[in-house]
Amino acid sequence: MERGVTGGQHARAHSVNVLYRDDRLLALDKPPGIIVHRGLADDDDTMADRARDLVGRPVHALHRLDRGTSGVLMFALDAETARVLQSAFTRTYLALVRGIPAPLSGRIDHPIPKGEGKDRVAAVSDYRVLGVCSARYGWVEVTPLTGRFHQVRRHMKHIDCPLIGDTTYGKSEHNRLWRERYGLSRLALHARAVTLDYNGAALAIEAPVPDDLTRALAAAGLSDPTR
Q1: ω into residue 144 within 30 of 0, thus cis?
Q2: pLDDT over threshold 60, residue 101
Q3: What is the H or E stretch that residue 197 is in?
Q4: What is the rounded CA–CA span in Å between residue 142 and residue 148?
Q5: Sequence ranges of the chain with CATH classification 3.30.2350.10
Q6: Comparison of pLDDT for 174 and 223, the residue scoring more
C-alpha cells in the first residue's frame, strides 16, 4: 500500500499525486481542468490515461468528477474490484456557494433528471456550512447519499445557493467577481474525501484543498478551509 507518491516519467510526463495505491485500488488527487476519461470531449490527456500509464495496465474509473472539480478520484485495477466497489463508497465535497444555506445544516431531498428530457430520479444530499466569506458566500461540506449527474451542483442550486464558477447552474456576475477580485477562475468544487469498507476495515482517503481555492478563500476572509 502506498500513499502520497508522485508518478514519474511513465505518467505522460505529468505529475500524478497518488493518495492511495495497492494491488487492487488506486486513488489519485485530480487537479482541476482535466477530464476523467474521453467521452464527448476528445482531450489528449485524461486522468484515466495518467492512471493507466502509472500502473502499466488498464484501469476502471469507479466514479467521475467534472473537468473543473479537483480532489479524490478512485480507480479499480481489475474488473472484479470495479464490480464490488462500484458505488460502494461515500464521497464528501467542499463547495463555495453564493449565499448562506439556511438552515446551516440539513438534507436536500430533490429528484434530478437522468438527462435532458428524461425522467427525474431520487437524489439526496446532506450538507453543513463550515464558514462564511465576505458575508454572503458559504463554504459548505456536501455529502451526496445518491450518485446522480451533477448532483452537488444541482442540489445547491435547488436551495438557491449555486456554486461559484459554475457556468451551467451558477450566476455569471458572482463567477466574474471571484475571478476578478480573488483570482478564482474555475468551478469551486473539491472532492475532499472518500470513505469505504475495504478488506474488512474502514478506509478513508483525503485530498488536500488546492492552493487556488485556499488563496481565494483566505483573500475573502476564510483562513481555514479544512475545518
Answers
A1: no
A2: yes
A3: strand 189-198
A4: 14
A5: 5-86, 89-182
A6: 174
Active site residues: 66
Grid cell 467534472 in the structure block, residue: 66
Integer Cα distance of 40 and 133 in angstroms = 35
CATH of domain 89-182: 3.30.2350.10
Query: Which residues are CB-contacts of 189 (< 8 A; sequence separation ≥ 6)?
Result: 66, 68, 69, 70, 93, 94, 95, 152, 153, 163, 165, 166
Distances (CA, A) of 55 to 10, 27, 60, 174, 179: 9, 12, 12, 41, 37
The amino acid at 156: M
For 107-159, give the DSSP string: EEE--EESSTTPPEE--EEEEEEEEEETTTEEEEEEEESS--TTHHHHHHHHT
Burial of 21 (0-12, 13-18, 19+ CB in 10 A): buried
Q: What is the mean pLDDT of the chain?
A: 90
How far are the Cα atoms of 19, 67, 75, 191, 223 from residue 41, in angstroms, in the given order? 26, 10, 20, 22, 36
More reliable by pLDDT, 109 or 116: 109
* Model pLDDT, residue 5: 47
> pTM for this one?
0.91
Residue 135 grid coordinates: 458575508
Report the C-alpha gap between 112 and 109 in whole angstroms: 10
Residue given cell 428524461 in the structure block: 118
Fold of the 5-86 domain: Pseudouridine synthase (3.30.2350)
